[in-house]
Amino acid sequence: MTDFKVSAKACDTRACGFKCQAVCPTGVFLAAPRKKLADYGIEPEYLISPRFTYFCNGCMECVTICPEHAITIKGHKTT
Predict the structure, then answer these.
(1) Domain count, the chain
(2) Most-buried pick from 6, 8, 9, 13 (CB within 10 A)?
(3) What is the pTM of this model?
């Protein structure tokens, strides 16, 4: 089994519209609020978090679709 590490640095969810989350066939990504949601009147801002990296199958769909080039997958072993 190959160990994959997913990093979503420099992610701008407002620019991309959560594309990585939409294309990931194994559900690696989770949208988490950057601030408390109890702040009334403030539009929530979200950050994509690769919370379930152990499900990553290395398909690279998230890397390909990310307009910010914010996602990298390390540990991909080619056969």
Answers:
(1) 1
(2) 6
(3) 0.76
